[in-house]
Amino acid sequence: MIDYLVAISIIVGIFAIFAIGLNLEWGFTGLINFGHVGFLAIGAYTTVLMNLSGAPLWLSMASGVVLAGFFGLLVGIPTLRLRDDYLAIVTIGFSEIVRLFLLNEEWLTRGPMGLFGFDRPFEAIIPFDYNYFLFILVFGSLAVIYLLVEKLVHSPWGRVLKSIREDEDVASALGKDVFRYKIQALMIGSAIAGLAGAFLAFNMQYISPRNFIPMETFYAWIIVVLGGSAKNKGTILGAIVVQSFYTGTRYLQDYVPLASHQMAALRVMVIGLLLVLLMMYKPQGLLGRKEELTLGQ
Amino acid sequence: MVHEILKVLDAKKYFGGVMAVDGASFSVEKQTIRGLIGANGAGKTTLFNLITGYYKLDSGKIFFGDERVDQLPTFKKALIGMVRTFQLTKALSRMTVLENLLLGPKIQSGEHIHNIFFRPKMVANEEAISVEKALETLDFFDLMHMKDDYAGALSGGQKRLLEMARALMTDPKMLLLDEPFAGVNPTLALKLVKRIKELKERGMTFLIIEHDMPLITEVSDTLSFMNHGRIILEGPPEDVKEDPRVLDAYLGDGA
Ligand SMILES: Nc1ncnc2c1ncn2[C@@H]1O[C@H](COP(=O)(O)OP(=O)(O)OP(=O)(O)O)[C@@H](O)[C@H]1O
Ligand SMILES: [Mg+2]
Q1: What is the DSSP letter of B30?
Q2: Model pTM greater than 0.90?
Q3: Dihedral through CA A140, CA A145, CA A148, CA A153, nearest 10?
Q4: How far is it between the farthest Cα atoms of chain B?
Q5: Listed range (A174-178, B113-117, B244-248) with the worst mean pLDDT
């Protein structure tokens, strides 16, 4: 039972990290990134590929994080000067390009067969169940990311992000270089997704392009909206709710007379229903502030 | 040249077939208050948008001090001291009134990520100074009691005051106000007029769009009248407001 809880918690922690990155972009800056999973994939594949080709694990992870952030820059430069919706379109396209690249460039990624056999941090020297260690590692990282992001959003820098979310014309009227802040938010959010990608790989010990379908992006969105946008604590709570539900129902499989694809569809329907109920009864999200919704523009 | 802070030369802006600004030229001397009047749709707000860089000129030139600025992005103009407010007020709704004001100061080391982590003292000190200044400003604008409320919860008139307070926090050289008195109660409007004159004495320059004739004649040193996208008349407020073309635009049927 404990082992099972630890296994679920690791997934929760990874998704919380992933979603905190999105919360910085959407919740605080108002950027619509529909391709967050692309950065998760870049983090995961970079870490794994570099390690498999002999690089030390810490360097592989760091490269995954940096490269994910760098791709945030690449995607941001042509789009962030344009209207908001361009970013949404370009990011969703970008994440699919990443996935198709991973699927088709078999010389590099082994395509649909996926990658395995890579190192995990300190695996050789952990004397107890590795999952316990991974649990500590993931939650330690989550705590660090949470504190860093909180520090950032409560600084003058974070204040500018919020002003951009509210009305970027005001930010420029007051002398803020809106483009610079948007790029920074997207880069940091993407780098955080990259870190989540590395942990995802460690947890599964096997990655394939199938792990990085667009649906993963929308789980992150559900987590952020459910928890209450611009509330990092809410994001963590959202990750707990969504992932326990998601994982929990997988185990219900044994007790419900449904085929697995029917069960998967049912699960998405129930999540959708939960979201509808949430929007009806607590539209600001679990930890959001109700007053925010009644504000006139 | 030296005492002109803003110079607009033959500015043009078309929207499809609409000639919103159709060859407007004028200049504003340093440390003066210029009123800009004209019927609805005369092109006043569009002119503001051109001056501050929200719209690109179709043709013409704009100088700020000695520098040609019509290619500069809006935020750079704000950094060299040209700051505007909006006719349709833009309160940053889901930020508090105080936070709105704290955005104003131009040089904030806390807006750079590395300083947040490596120079926290410096960031905190600057923030304390900004907060003090913001509180003084809020006090003047009768917004102190709202400082921790969401800006979105302010009334229409209060949002207008917030716009001006926030703009003043940037320490501008020149302030462009788009209908700053609309919806503000008469007593406070007179107080604002007095403050604007004080700020002028301290070296600031103003360009103010306003429909309220008594207020704009009271506050302005010079009045410019805009009609169909051009500045067609300029002079002492008392003269301009008696001009038949102005009377026609304001009292006539506008044809
Ligand atoms: N973004 C835009 N797109 C199309 N037309 C515009 C745009 N902005 C302004 N116009 C047109 O340009 C003309 C001038 O508008 P502007 O807002 O500058 O007038 P104004 O003098 O500020 O009027 P008011 O006193 O009512 O505020 C109007 O005919 C308006 O419809
Ligand atoms: Mg106007």
Answers
A1: T
A2: yes
A3: -140
A4: 64
A5: B244-248
Q: Is A125 on the interface with B (CB under 8 A)?
A: no
The 10 Å CB-count burial string (b at 16+, else e) for A149-169 is beebbebbbbbbbbbbbbbbb
Give the tens place of pLDDT for each residue, A105-136.
999 999 999 999 899 999 889 889 999 999 99
Question: Given this model, what pLDDT does residue A293 score?
Answer: 65
DSSP H helical ranges for chain B: 44-51, 74-79, 97-102, 113-118, 120-140, 156-168, 186-201, 213-219, 237-242, 244-251
| Cα B210 from Cα B212, distance rounded (Å) | 6
Pinpoint the alpha helices (H) of A154-231. 156-173, 178-204, 214-227
Beta bridge mates, A257: none
pLDDT bucket at B107, cuts 50 / 70 / 90: confident
Q: How far is the CA of B46 from the centre of ligand 1 (A)?
A: 6
pLDDT at B254: 46
Residue linked to tokens 């103009």: B77
CA distances from A190 to A71, A196, B219, B245 (A): 8, 10, 51, 59
3-state secondary structure of B232: strand
ipTM for the assembly: 0.91
- Indicate the residue of A160, A165, A174 with minimum beta-carbon distance to B166: A174
Strand partners, B18: B15
Give dist(CA B10, CA B230) in Å, integer.
9
Residues having CB closer than 6 A to ligand 1 are: B 15, 18, 20, 38, 40-46, 87
Distances (CA, A) of A263 to A217, A219, A252, A269, B102: 21, 17, 9, 10, 52
CA distance A289 to chain B (A): 10
- Which of the 8 DSSP states describes residue A294? G
Report residue B131: phi and psi, to 5°: -60, -45
Q: Answer yes or no: are the C-beta atoms of B101 and B166 closer than 8 Å.
A: yes
Residue ranges in chain A assigned as alpha helix (H): 2-22, 36-52, 57-79, 84-104, 106-109, 130-153, 156-173, 178-204, 214-227, 232-252, 260-281
Please tell me the distance from the alpha carbon of residue A21 to that of residue A17, in angstroms, as a whole number: 7
